[in-house]
Fold:
Amino acid sequence: MISKTTATDLTARPYVKWAGGKSQLLPQFQLCYPPELASGQITRYVEPFVGSGAVLFDVASRFALSDLIVIDRNPRLMLTYEVIQSDVEALIARLEALQAQYWAADQEVRHALYYEMREAYNRRQASDVEQAAQFIFLNRTCFNGLYRVNRRGNFNVPMGRYRRPRIADADNLRRVHEVLQQVTLRVGDYRLATDFIDARTFVYCDPPYRPLTRTASFTAYSDELFTDQNQTELAAFARASSRAGARVMLSNSDPRNIDPADDFFDRLYHDFTISRLPARRSINSRSDRRGPVHELVITSYPLASAESAGEKQCASEASRS
Ligand SMILES: C[S@@+](CC[C@H](N)C(=O)[O-])C[C@H]1O[C@@H](n2cnc3c(N)ncnc32)[C@H](O)[C@@H]1O
Structure:
């Protein structure tokens, strides 16, 4: 059986909240996957900016693949994937204890626990299981599920205010563990993916967003910034992967959300197919300035027509520029 058809509630989901997470866009993305995934000609999946893995878990639940390779340069995130892969029951036990402690505590005790955990996380001395538990605990209890580090690499997000945050989702962690049994994990730069790419490969790249506003680029930390130069290098990587026979899909925020004349990605990917998907993300707190927000999906292959895809979103907005 090649296509596993519909994803069910039993599908693994991201175990952390992550900036730029793609869970909400999955129904539209599914129309943009290359048809060779369903036909079985593609047997390998490579995701070099995996983050919380929304697309990884979707693809793994839908298609029979023999190899899945994911990469991210965030070492603490990748350590957590490794612990879920190899020692999920110990991690669940620790998270359940933390959740019980947090839920039973009043605001003052919660505050003390949060900042103790943050300090311990930044000391980096605990066991791998404990560091993974700290990572998930902080993600579920911090302000807005943000992941932000200072120049010394220390996590510095303040505590959030959630009444009963889901710190230990044992069922989902066990599903993620199952999926990860067939996944190769690598920490580092996306170019590590080069060794894995061939004509049987689907590569999906979701790099950090190109900042939508000037202010956004000024507030970001420099080591989290993915500059236009980085985007240009990534385009060269995408082109080389395509030349090696792989099918390549990339996503990014659409700069035309802010400036209709900004054709940065249209020029950069003039030889790829560019689709603009409506996204729910809001980019302006002032409601009078809120327009439709689009997410770019860029593919090295043409997309099926709206009719044959049985849907409108992805295909009908596709434009070759
Ligand atoms: C927009 S997020 C990916 C979100 C992911 N699609 C999801 O659903 O959660 C971008 C990710 O790329 C990682 N990253 C940034 N620069 C990188 C690089 N040069 N090589 C590999 N990963 C990188 C970041 O750590 C972050 O997790």
User: Anything to note?
Assistant: The first strand starts at residue 44 and ends at 47. DSSP finds 13 helices and seven strands in the chain.
